[in-house]
Design brief:
The chain is built from eight helices and seven strands; from the N terminus they run αααααβαββαββαββ. It is an alpha+beta fold. It has two domains: 120 residues, no CATH class; 152 residues, Heat Shock Protein 90 (2-Layer Sandwich), CATH 3.30.565. Strand 6 and strand 7 form a beta hairpin. It is rod-shaped and about 110 Å long.
């Protein structure tokens, strides 16, 4: 801002000593730096007190006018540092006032940008918390659903006086411990999901034996890829819920990887004549969970006359 003085044509028509130019620049720079710091201090105090911006601006202008008056009166006797001793003092006032207004404009712009960033950050944090809450609601739908089906299986085993009922209860206890341990995670690694699924398969095969065949065929490097928690278990559970599994018509479920970024859960289609009433938990739940993770087309369904498959996108 001291460079505004160079707009004075006398600097180019008269020979000025470098020391006088340097002195003028240094004094002008230090004064404008002082103005900047004082204006910023006033702005910070008003922001902390949550005062209106208009009041802050009025105070800053009044303080600047006072400081400019003091400064001009202070440098008046220092003719050695004035580039043009014949220029009226009103010109000095005008230049310094213009510099002051530019400082206030820059600070107001920076404050506005900072406030905008704060608002965007607060909105992002609020949105993130909202997504977490909605995700937890969806997960809490899955957990009771899983427990209900496991207890239904156990009830049948107890009614039939199956000797495997006690091991089934122990496995159910261990399985639910795993479920509660992962309850805070939105996603888990494929290895973690597969570990949980294999415990669940153990419980299923204790009930269905040869009526149910589950094959898992995935690539070696899939282990650390992410997937929504309990998604494989939920899809296997749906296969059993909606299809017949009998000695004449065994149910075959395949979990395989045909592409690097996708996992496919497929079963032979043999729908029950009177399907159980749906609780609304399943594929729609998974779709919503992928949406909350900002993943488009995370769930793809393909159905033919003989097969039903669901493709999940790995994260």
């Amino acid at each position: 801002m001291p460079g505004i003085s160079l707009l004075n044509n006398n600097l180019f028509t008269t020979r000025q000593e470098p020391s006088r130019i340097a002195g003028s620049w240094i004094i002008g720079f230090l004064f404008l730096l002082l103005l900047w710091m004082i204006d910023q201090w006033i702005a910070d105090r008003f922001k902390a007190a949550k005062r209106p911006p208009g009041m802050r601006l009025c105070i800053q202008i009044l303080v600047n006018l006072l400081l400019i008056g003091i400064f001009v009166e202070f440098v008046r006797p220092l003719d050695a540092l004035r580039l043009d001793t014949h220029a009226p003092l009103s010109l000095a006032y005008a230049k310094l006032l213009l510099a002051s207004l530019i400082i206030l404009s820059i600070q107001a712009t920076l404050a506005s940008l900072a406030e905008k960033e704060d608002i965007l950050l607060a909105n992002a944090e609020l949105q993130n918390e909202n997504l977490k809450a909605r995700f937890e609601v969806l997960k809490q739908q899955v957990n009771p659903h899983f427990l209900f089906n496991a207890l239904s299986t156990l009830r049948i085993m107890v009614r039939e006086k199956d000797d495997r009922a006690e091991p089934f209860i122990l496995k159910l206890s261990d399985l639910y411990r795993q479920l509660l341990g992962k309850n805070t995670a939105q996603t888990v690694t494929f290895d973690e999901e597969l570990e949980f699924l294999q415990s669940y398969i153990f419980m299923l095969q204790a009930r269905f034996e040869s009526l149910l065949n589950i094959r898992i065929d995935t690539w070696p490097d899939i282990g650390l890829r992410k997937i929504p928690a309990f998604s494989l278990q939920l899809l296997v559970e749906n296969c059993i819920k909606h299809n017949i599994a009998s000695s004449a018509r065994p149910l075959y479920i395949t979990i395989c990887q045909q592409q690097a970024d996708y996992i496919v859960i497929e079963n032979n289609l043999q729908t029950k004549p009177a399907a159980e009433e749906s609780s609304g938990i399943g594929l729609e739940n998974l779709r919503k969970r992928y949406e909350l993770l900002h993943i488009q087309n995370g769930v793809t369904i393909h159905r033919t006359e003989t097969k039903f498959s669901v493709t999940l996108k790995l994260l």
